[in-house]
Amino acid sequence: MKLLSQLEIGEHATVAVVNGEGAVRRRLFDMGITPGAQVYLRKKAPLGDPIEIAIRGYELTLRKAEAAHVEVQ
């Protein structure tokens, strides 16, 4: 498994585990990042932070620190 923050542009993955605690974990779940969800990495900013993913039919921008809490396969 790898982290969502480690995906390359154009790569598809499935969310396996959402780590983190408290508000961070709740925020990720509220944004639709739940186990089993399909994600596609659309873009990365020039310095790699933030990243833009497509999930559940919409585009979502995440900070690299937030994406590091999500394990994908």
Distance between the termini: 5 Å
Largest sheet: 6 strands, antiparallel
Please give the order of strands in the largest beta sheet: 1-6-2-3-4-5
* Helix-strand category: alpha+beta
The percent range for strand residues is 35-45%
- The number of helices is 2
Q: Helix amount, in percent? A: 10-25%
Task: Give the rounded overall mean pLDDT.
Answer: 93
- Unreliable parts: none
Order of helices and strands: EEHEEEHE
Choose one word for the global shape.
globular
Keywords:
40% strand; six-stranded antiparallel β-sheet; alpha+beta; 2 helices; 73 residues; 6 strands; 18% helix
What's the helix and strand layout?
Elements: E1 2-3, E2 12-18, H1 22-30, E3 38-44, E4 51-55, E5 58-62, H2 64-67, E6 70-72
